[in-house]
UniProtKB/TrEMBL annotation:
Cross-referenced PANTHER family: METALLOPHOSPHOESTERASE, SER_THR PROTEIN PHOSPHATASE FAMILY PROTEIN (AFU_ORTHOLOGUE AFUA_1G06000)
Keyword Iron-sulfur: no
Keyword terms, alphabetized: Lyase
CDD domains: MPP_239FB
Domain Calcineurin-like phosphoesterase: 18-218
One MF annotation (Gene Ontology) recorded for this entry: lyase activity
Recorded name of the encoding gene: rglC_0
Disordered: annotated segments: 262-287
InterPro entries with a match to the protein in the record: Calcineurin-like_PHP, Metallo-depent_PP-like, UPF0046_metallophosphoest
Any one Pfam family match given in the protein's UniProt record, by short name: Metallophos
Protein name: Putative rhamnogalacturonate lyase C
Length: 370
């Protein structure tokens, strides 16, 4: 139900929806390495396997299909190599020289699943329709891509990074990528930020409610980023970052991020989609639009701020990101979550495999029913 609402239209009811977020299971399954809490939607942000063999994928698909969620949405990761046929045709024998795999069969396992939605750098609109569920709707974009690092699948170069995330729709409620954005939930054990700067910049433009990722096991956690939208000619700024304290660390409690109206802290993001009927700057600020030039230094700071804050106001300079800002200023915050289940790096050291809990997110979403 990806429809815009005019100011006079009734707003949809909001209901709490529970997401269970995991990533980087690397062949681990519920009941052994970790348990799956109850929820409405299961989000899996890649690295389902170690090397993408058909046997590995069959095992993973089996437990995913048995998992009790109304919607189960996944992306692949760099270790799921058979799901990237182009990569596998070039490098597959380096991994499976004794028993070459058939990517077509591996892909078919996921494509034929009646209960798994596999996103491959694309968006989908989800309407939860179970009578016993929240009956809410959201738009999600999912991608397996991550910055190329060694011989692994779904990699992209630094030259490609500047445009690789252009397909993410600006009206996305959730963005799920295997890679983290740079400087958010992406710190490796060597203290290096391993995320993607271009993705971070795109998140500033899109400003979804949730950004789910994995890939960097040590980066597991969550941060609420408040985007700086008050400086209209400066893109990609952040006003603040609030680090999540895991209530389930070292005990039997759930690892819950409560962003609902019932929680300690909601999220300042109304999911506004923007609209074409922009209010002229002169109407929103009392200043003649003819006096606004490309040179923002000619415009008082309070006028710039008022122009951006005005619902549908037109940013006052060609250096402004008109598309990202106009009519979408209710999208102030994004919760970024690295949901890596595998706590240790791959390959695992002498300490053996260690596992994290799934991260649960409660968030209010609009109902699709009128």
């Amino acid at each position: 139900m990806d429809q815009q609402h005019s100011d006079t239209s009734p707003r949809p009811a909001m209901r709490r929806t529970r997401f269970v977020c995991i990533s980087d299971t690397h062949n681990a399954s519920p009941g052994g390495a970790f348990s799956l809490p109850h929820g409405d939607v299961l989000l899996v942000a890649g690295d389902l396997t170690n090397q993408g063999s058909e046997k590995e994928l069959r095992k993973t698909v089996k437990w995913l299909e048995e998992a009790d969620f109304e919607a189960k949405i996944i992306v692949a990761g760099n270790h799921d190599i058979t799901l990237d046929p182009e990569f596998y045709s070039q490098y597959g024998l380096y991994f499976h020289n004794q028993a070459p795999q058939d990517p077509a069969k591996c892909i078919k396992l996921l494509e034929d699943s009646p209960s798994i939605l596999w996103l491959k750098h694309e968006a989908a609109i989800i309407n939860l329709s179970s009578p016993s569920g929240p009956r809410t709707t959201f738009k999600i974009f999912g991608s397996p891509l991550s910055p190329a690092n060694g011989m692994w699948a779904f990699g992209y170069s630094g030259e490609e990074a500047s445009h690789i995330w252009d397909p993410i729709p600006l009206d996305s409620d959730i963005v799920m990528t295997h890679t983290p954005p740079k400087y958010h939930c992406d710190e490796r054990k060597d203290r290096r930020a391993a995320g993607c700067e271009a993705l971070r910049n795109t998140l500033w433009r899109v400003r979804p409610k949730l950004a789910i990722c994995g890939h960097v096991h040590e980066g597991r956690g969550a941060e609420i980023v408040r985007w700086d939208l008050d400086h209209s000619n400066i893109k990609y700024k952040e006003a603040s970052v609030e680090r999540w304290e895991d209530p389930g660390r070292g005990n039997k409690k759930m690892s819950l991020v409560d962003l609902s109206s019932r929680g300690r802290r909601g999220i300042n993001n109304d999911g506004s989609r923007g609209h074409g009927e922009n209010i002229p700057l002169s109407e929103s600020t009392g200043t003649s639009a003819a006096n606004i030039t490309e040179d923002s230094s000619a415009v008082p700071a309070e006028t710039l701020a008022a122009a951006i804050r005005g619902q549908g106001g037109i940013p006052p300079s060609k250096r402004c990101d008109n598309e990202a800002l106009s009519g979408r200023l209710g999208r102030r915050e994004t919760c970024i979550i690295n949901a890596a289940i595998m706590a240790s790096s791959w390959p695992h050291g002498s300490g053996g495999k260690k596992f994290n809990k799934p991260i649960i997110v409660d968030i209010d979403l609009p109902t699709w029913e009128t």
